[in-house]
Each structure stands twice: as C-alpha cells, then as structure tokens.
Amino acid sequence: MPRIAYLGPQGTFTEQAARELTADFAAELIAHDTVHSALEAVRAGEVEAAGVPMENSVEGAVPSTLDGLVAGDPVVAVAELVLPIRFDVLVRPGTDPSEVTSVASHPHALAQVRGWLSRELPRAQDVPTASTATAAVEVENGTADAAVVAPVAHRYHSRLTRLASDIADVDDAVTRFLLVRRPGHLPEPTGADRTSIAVVAHDEVGALGEVLSELSLRGINLSRIESRPTKDRLGAYRFFLDFDGHVADTRIGDALTGLHRRCSEVRFLGSFPKADSKPVSVRASDSEQAFRRSMRWLSEVRRGRTA
Ligand SMILES: O=C(O)C(=O)C[C@]1(C(=O)O)C=C[C@@H](O)C=C1
C-alpha cells in the first residue's frame, strides 16, 4: 500500500486534503510535524507522495511549502485540491474566555480569524505552531490556553471542549493543497491543467518582464506569481509561476524552452489537472494545430521548397 506523508499531526486540514487526494486508491497516511519533513520523506523514498498546503485565499502562499519544493532534489506536484476553510476554537474544560491569554495555531489560521480573536479573546497573544493540530496538542499540554483548529481536530482531542465552532472572518475562504511526488510520472493532459515552475531570472534590466513575455506571447494565462528569496544574498529572488496548460502542450513546451534560455534556473514543479476542471481556453494562433502548421511551413522553408 503506498505511504503518503502529510503535514500533521492527525486532525489538520492537510490530512483531510491528503485523504481526498488519495481517495482513488488504498493509502497509508503518515503524519509529519512539518512540511519540510513531509517533502524530505518523499525525496528519501520513504513515502510515495506528500500532501502539502500551497496557498490560502485570505493569507496567500504557504512559505514553508514554496521553500520546501525547491530545497533539495526535484519533486513535482501531480494533483491539487481546494478545500473550504472554517475553524473551531478548542480550550481545556472549564476555561473562561476572559482568562484566555494565549491562542495557538498555524500562522495562516490565526490570520484568518484575526477579527474574531480581537473581539472574543482580546487578551490572547499568538502562539504560532507548525499546524492547527499541533496547536490542540499545545492546549492539552498547557502551553497555550486556546487553539484555532480544523473542525475534525476535536475527534482526536476530545478531552478539549469547543469554545467556538465554524468561525471565519472571510466566509468563502479556501486553501489549495498539492500532492507531491518524485519525478517520473506525469499526469496525462486533460485540457484543464495547470503547470507550476520556479525560475531565477538573470540580474539584468527587464529580466522579469522577459520571463512573463515568454508566457504572454504564447497566449498562456498566468494564474499566480510569487517571489521568495533564493537565500544566497540580499535582493536575489526566485519566482514561482503557475499557468494554465500542460507541459505536453506545444505552446507550454515552447515557453519553457524560452525560459530555460533566459533564466539562470528553471525548475519544473509539475503539470496536473486543475481543481476547478475548467477547460483551458487557447486562442487559435496558439493551438496545437497552429503550432504544427507553422512547424511544417518552417521545415518546407528549410528544405528550400517554399519561399
Ligand atoms: O495546519 C493545518 O491544519 C494545515 O493544514 C495548514 C494550513 C495552511 O498552511 O494554511 C491549511 C489550511 C488553513 O488555511 C490553515 C492552515
């Protein structure tokens, strides 16, 4: 049975995502304390894949995932899932809300209930934890008074009681999760795919503009751009790009070879079906047929058969 690592312990949103992402086959889910450790288990071959949080509609990208994807041997995403996000708040039995002076959770979770916390637990200081479920453990251990958790967490921490249920400052908040593996297996193109890459542009005028032009010239829709320090020196950044299409599509392949020529580093981070399954629209001049026709024309020209 394939082993699948996830950001744990049990009761995280990522655990739910990992279950749904592996729903088609029997899998053994293995909790890891950090995203870094889950991705290292993939790289080391200890597990087949890892479920990791990627970005939240309120708080943005998960920096530990961006950094983990490019730190070490290549790994690629093979599937994505979007989950609605609402929280419960757990406390030790008998806790009076007015006595809560510390509230633990993943920084993304705390950010998504900031308004609720300032209204309901105004004295509480943040205690950032590696995941929402770790926060519940901290409350059990007495190192924090309250934990902002996924609603399923209570199942694993039934000694705690719910101070609040189903809270969220933004009603329709969602988080996107990825299933990440070692390279070697590319999902088939479906016509509704996303490709993810990370690039380091040369340090010269207009370099980022040229990176984006490689996509726009070929009618490729960019859905996300994010930067993270390369960690080599101040001012050096790596750009994480998501765009519509599959690496098997000619326009995507063409853009990637352009980027490979222009950038000091290009990491392919996967092509996989989009969670929304919305077919990618491609203008006629960038269709597979248009690329094939133009390649045929070029080879005729090169053979001296056409002017
Ligand atoms: O801590 C968890 O439960 C997670 O799965 C991580 C995470 C995140 O990284 O954003 C996932 C979804 C929520 O937005 C809050 C926390």
TrEMBL record:
Q: Which NCBIfam families match?
A: PRK11898.1 (NF008865)
Please state the pathway this protein functions in, per its UniProt record.
Amino-acid biosynthesis; L-phenylalanine biosynthesis; phenylpyruvate from prephenate: step 1/1
GO MF annotation, one: prephenate dehydratase activity
Q: Which reaction does it catalyse?
A: prephenate + H(+) = 3-phenylpyruvate + CO2 + H2O
Give the coiled coil ranges: none
Q: Which gene encodes it?
A: pheA
Instruction: Name all ACT domain ranges.
Output: 196-274
What are its GO cellular component terms? Answer: cytoplasm
Query: Which residues does this entry assign to the site Essential for prephenate dehydratase activity?
Result: 175
Gene3D superfamilies named in the record: 3.30.70.260, Periplasmic binding protein-like II
- Protein name from the UniProt record: Prephenate dehydratase
Entry's EC annotation: 4.2.1.51
Key word Disulfide bond present in the record?
Answer: no
**Keywords attached to this entry:** Amino-acid biosynthesis, Aromatic amino acid biosynthesis, Lyase, Phenylalanine biosynthesis
Q: What class of enzyme is it?
A: lyase
Prephenate dehydratase domain: from which residue to which, for each copy? 3-182
CDD domains, per this entry? ACT_CM-PDT (cd04905), PBP2_Aa-PDT_like (cd13632)
Q: Which GO terms describe its biological process?
A: L-phenylalanine biosynthetic process
